[in-house]
Each structure stands twice: as structure tokens, then as C-alpha cells.
Amino acid sequence: MAGRKYSKQRAFIKQYLASTSSHPTADTVYDEIRKRIPNISLGTVYRNLNQLTETGEIIKLSCGGGCDRFDGNTSPHYHFICTLCGTVMDLDMDSIDFVNKCAAKHFTGRIEGSQTYFYGTCPSCLFQEEAELVSKTGL
Amino acid sequence: MAGRKYSKQRAFIKQYLASTSSHPTADTVYDEIRKRIPNISLGTVYRNLNQLTETGEIIKLSCGGGCDRFDGNTSPHYHFICTLCGTVMDLDMDSIDFVNKCAAKHFTGRIEGSQTYFYGTCPSCLFQEEAELVSKTGL
DNA sequence: TTTGATGCAAATGTTTTGCATGCAA
DNA sequence: TTGCATGCAAAACATTTGCATCAAA
Lengths: 139, 139
Fold this sequence. Notes:
The first copy, chain A, has 2 domains: about 1-75, Winged helix-like DNA-binding domain superfamily/Winged helix DNA-binding domain (Arc Repressor Mutant, subunit A, Orthogonal Bundle), CATH 1.10.10; about 75-139, Ferric-uptake regulator, C-terminal dimerisarion domain (Dna Ligase, domain 1, 2-Layer Sandwich), CATH 3.30.1490.190. Helix content of chain A is about 40%, strand content about 20%. The first copy, chain A, has helices spanning about 10-20, 25-35, 40-55, 100-105, 125-135; strands at about 60, 70, 80, 90, 110-120. In chain A, the strands form 2 sheets. Chain A has a 3-stranded mixed beta sheet with strand order 4-3-5. A two-stranded antiparallel ribbon of chain A has the order 1-2. The radius of gyration of chain A is 19 Å and the shape is flat. The structure holds a DNA duplex.
């Protein structure tokens, strides 16, 4: 919240996250930004990702899989994680933010928000699964 | 899914998780089990937590905060994470599992489940916050 | 016996941090 | 100038893994 100064590194990171819907990991962000700023350090990437997360300019996704992912889309939306290939994708669905009211009903604390992660098989893995079934059964 | 053999270590871990609703980290599980099995190793704890997660006997929570947490309560329920103190608690609320149908509506993959995490201020931190407000404003 | 499970320690992977220097305001 | 931001490297954590040994079936 204190006086923040402009930095090219932070600007590029934020811009990159706004431009993709691939929910990259810190390491992927690092690789991408290095194409533009070859001598950026991984520490700087982490520091900026954390700062942008704190200010709410980006979102950090802790959806399992060993490392966090980051999302430049801060409007309310929901994520799907494929349990086979690990891909994280946005879901096109209506708002379910009234679940916050359900949660608040019998709770004496303060609910400020929620994150919902959906799990299953992504379209691509589903297709592959079906193809394998066909080749095995010959149907 | 292969032939699994009994182990005292795994039995104790599962029993401990079933007995608490504190959503412990792997390290906390290690500390607790060591009270009963002093020479158990952290590797064994991780191996068993992973195996129990795979068989669905326990649940792994990736709710941010650096490390995963584990829950012996496998019946559908929801979690609240206090953004101030980090506590993870169960929420007493109605099922919202129809959100899976909302998610499936326009999705060509297969939705198999979901996890919802609620964030905010827990009752204890809320009380503290109010106490500080009173002492500052004198109201 | 056979084979899964363990303890130990080393290795891996992710994220944070200390510090001297650089750069925005 | 002031002090936030950086690059670099080391450190701190969290988790996994190789291997010889142990123990369940």
C-alpha cells in the first residue's frame, strides 16, 4: 500500500498475464518475460507476482500440483483443472457467488470471498480416452 | 490399487486424521504421530498421506499458504480459511454440489467434482479486530 | 519367500531473502 | 536525494526419492 514506483519488469509481467488465459506458473512467467527482458531474475518475478496479488491486480491460484498459478483476469470466474494432464482452464458458467451467502448463514466470522475449483477430464483428454476405447474394442 | 499391506504407521496416520478437525499439514501430522511412533520418518508420513489421498480415504487441501493440508473427513463439506491467522475450519452449510451442474452446462469435458474455499476473517480474529476498534475509538 | 513399507539421507522443486547496486520520483 | 526495485546467489521450505532393511501376507 506504500508508495510504489514504476518498474518495467512489473509492467511486463502484468501485461503478459492480462494477455493470456493459460494460467501460467511463476516459472513460465519468468521464461516468457525473459524473451523481452533477458536479464530479469526469478526473484523479481516472484516479488512482483506477490505484490500484484496483494494489490488484487492479478489472482493467485492454489489448485494443487506443486506450484501456484497466476491469472490476470480478476473478474469473477471459475476454473477447471484436468486431473489427467493438469491443464487449468476458465469455465464459461453463470455466477455462483451466492454460495458466499450459503456459507455465511451459520458462520459467525466474516466471509469475504471464495474460490471454486472444478476437477475432471478436459475435452482434449476426454477425446483421447474415447479414441483409445474405440481402438481397443473396435467399435 | 495393488496389494496393500497393513502398516502401523499408516493406521496411526489415518486414525489421527479421523480424530481431528484441525486440517493439519504434513509436518504437524509428523509431529503428532511421532508421539506414538517416535522413529517414524517424514518420508513415510508423506508416502502414506499421498497413498491415503489416492485411495480417497483422506482429502488433500491445496488452499494456499505454502503447504498442503489434510482432512480425514471425506464426507462432502466446505472449508473456510482465515486470511489473517491462516486457520482452516469446516463450515456448517448446506450442500452446494449443484454448482457442478452449473459448471457442466457449457463444458465439453467431464466434471467429476469440485472444491470450494471460502476466505475472510474467522470469528476469533473478528473479535480481536472489534476489541481493537473499541480501544482506539473508545466506543 | 515375496513384495510392499520403512528409516534415513540425499535430491528435487518452489519460493523467499540478504545485500549491494540501479533507477523512479 | 530518497527509498522502492532489481539481479544475483544463497537460503529456506516443502516434498519426493534411492536404497538397504524390515515386516506383512
